[in-house]
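Please predict the structure of the following assembly.
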Amino acid sequence: MPSNVSLAERRAALLHAAAKVGHNVTSILDTGRLLEQTVDIICDEFGFYYAGVFLIDEADSEAGRRWVVLRAGRGDAGAAMVAERYKLEVNGRSMIGAATGMGSAIIALDVGEEPVHFKNPHLPDTRSEMALPLIVGEKTIGALTVQSTEEAVFSDDDITALQAMADQLAIAINNARLYSQNRQLLARARRRTRLLEAAAEVGRETASILDLDELLARMVDIICDAYGFYYAGVFLVEPDAEDPDRQWAVLRAGRGEMGAAMVAEGHKLEVGGHSMIGAAAGMQGALIALDVGDEPEHFKNPHLPDTRSEMALPLVVGDADGGVCLLGTVTVQSTEEGAFSDDDITSLQAMANHLAVAIRNAQLLKELEAAHAELVRTKTYEALATATLEAIHWIGNKALPITAGVERLLEDLDRLPPTEPERLESMREDLEMIADSAALIVSVQEHLIGPAREEQPRPGLAEDVVKDAAVATVIPVEMISYTVAPDLPLVRADTTQLGRVFGYVLQNAVEAVEGADEKRITVEVTPVDDFVAIRIADTGPGIPEEDLDKIWAVFYTTKGAQHAGLGLSAALQVLKQIEGQIMAANGPEGGAVFEVLVPVYDGPLPEATLPSKKKVLLIDDDDAWSRFATAALKDAGNKVTRSADGRAKLATFDLILMDAVLERADSRAVLEQVAAEGAGAKTLVVASGLRVEEAMALIQLGARDVVLKPYTAAALAEIVG
Amino acid sequence: MTGEIKLLLVDDEELVLRSMEKTLLRAGFDVETAGNAIAGLALFESTLDGGEPFDLAILDLNMPGLDGRNDADAGLKLLSVMVKADADLPIIILTAFDEVARAKEAVARGARAYFVKGREAGLVDLVNDIIEG
């Protein structure tokens, strides 16, 4: 047993050591270093052979069991135990477990007799042990073990001194922990600030950059600089060139040389495909691979071999219908595993949202610019077309005297004495060449000036207009056949102009079949959505594939110099004005197929007040128009008779309606006969299209009037009323 | 040569006017020409005070009108003035090939016929048809 003197000395030494520990530990803010120094000071100053510090691991708890883990130990034994993560259960059978559980010191004077002492193979020489709880406020954070090779070495004084030191140590540990936590919090706060600044910068920058490529390049730089990632890239969604069901995410900007290389080689990934970008785009949600090696969706990219973490963020904006519209994806990559914190993900998605809006704006601006350019082109084209038409009109007028002059010269030539017959023949040939050229110029003018006239769309029957055009084109009845769907709706068109269109196409067909073995033209009239489609097919050689687009150009012709090549461009112009369409193709059997789409008339059909109780004669074929007129007049209570050639008791009728185009009779001859019988004054001639010469000839032959053919009861009432 | 048939021809296109004049002269008609409505009306009125009257007039539609300004309907207005002064005078109106409404209007105002410009060959026949009635 130690003497009183030595006890007093020892107490002084203990208090000194405790003070030293206290002084030391309070200035150490690194927890690991603090604990190592503590065990060394305790052993050196107190002369114990071992000391160790255990701390409760709050993260390691399961089913109510908590563990206290050795964080620092004296010497090789301590290092070995720390390395093997030596731990004891709180409230378990060990002295440390009991001390942490109860929050009070435990002393074993001979550990061999102490039931809660756990025999430790690393510390076989321990004969006395003291376990002191480390308490901050009300909370036990761990325990301190102090061991000696001597039996019963600890006195109450030791306990008091060591517990005072343990209390200081607990406070120091807590301080160090708080410091570390604060530092982490500060670092996180700083990073969050920087990320938010970066997101805000993207917001600011993107609002002012309207050039898409510049915007995307700036974006990847901001992401890499602000977050310290080694690579970022932006993909934009584009439809597949061929398959409308497939979409591609195409790399439009990438960080650094690797990014530039990938953009240059057209790096793209399929939306909904196996890459992270493709999957993120397909799901329209963020996708994160913290170690890309483990992530099956990650596409191994030879340009970016160092990537260990990758995040793919979708770029989406709301669309006009309240849904979302996927514009593309952003990829962010790091060389570190698990590089993305929750803050990163939140602020990067915020940034991606900013970017998506900016991309949409840039795209809208581009579309606006494209629309503007298109408008300028259209206006330019219109101005050119107008100027061309005016020029042609002027030239045509100036050419008029040429034909008459040449004609007079030819007459004079005939009257000259034939003294030099060869010279006379040569002059005649030259004059005919001049006459042909002048006639061509005049016909160009007539072809172009017609379609250029303002159109007056009205309800019409496409079938009737195309049949009239076929008769006017003088196509033999046996060459042409019609298939007409029943109950066709009325179309909205200027029937004079539409008749011109059919005339041009039919003229084309007639010329196409000229050299063919089989000369056949088929006309099909069917409803197609909001249009009535008129397909005109011939058995000619078809249109060379390379010419299919050129045929619409003014002055394009495959038929030699005598053809001005105006018909189809005039047809295109007419259909553009009435918002219809005309298309050319080659049929499966080789001939040309033209399809004309004329919009269905969807305007009002006003009530008609037709006269009643009249006897009406229709001089017309059994066709769509005569059926319409018969029904309308009969509905109003009139008696209607139809004749294909006008041979009827004309005097018995109150009104005669005659179609200007008759399939099997010459309308002028019929009208002459009608006038001869004194019925001209009650005869109205109707025509789907009007030309001055035809109309005036019929009026001069004695018709009461020549008018545009009515296709509605109201229009009919207007002309007969 | 029918010598005594006297025609009035009014058109502002100098070459067209001269060309038609030549055609009609060659057919044996006596032709007087004017390049606008005012000059045409002056020639017409000069015949009302005892001069030898015109047997027929051929009027263009679009030319400087009675007020001196270019007018697409100048011929129609001149037509009306002339018909009012001499209802029996046959008048032919010159039109473009597809001006149906103007042609009908001209006939409504008393024109005997219309003629599409550029079809000069038929003009002599048309004049003969009308004169011979």
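Strands of chain B lie at 6-10, 30-34, 56-60, 63-64, 70-71, 91-95, 113-116. The first strand of chain B starts at residue 6 and ends at 10.
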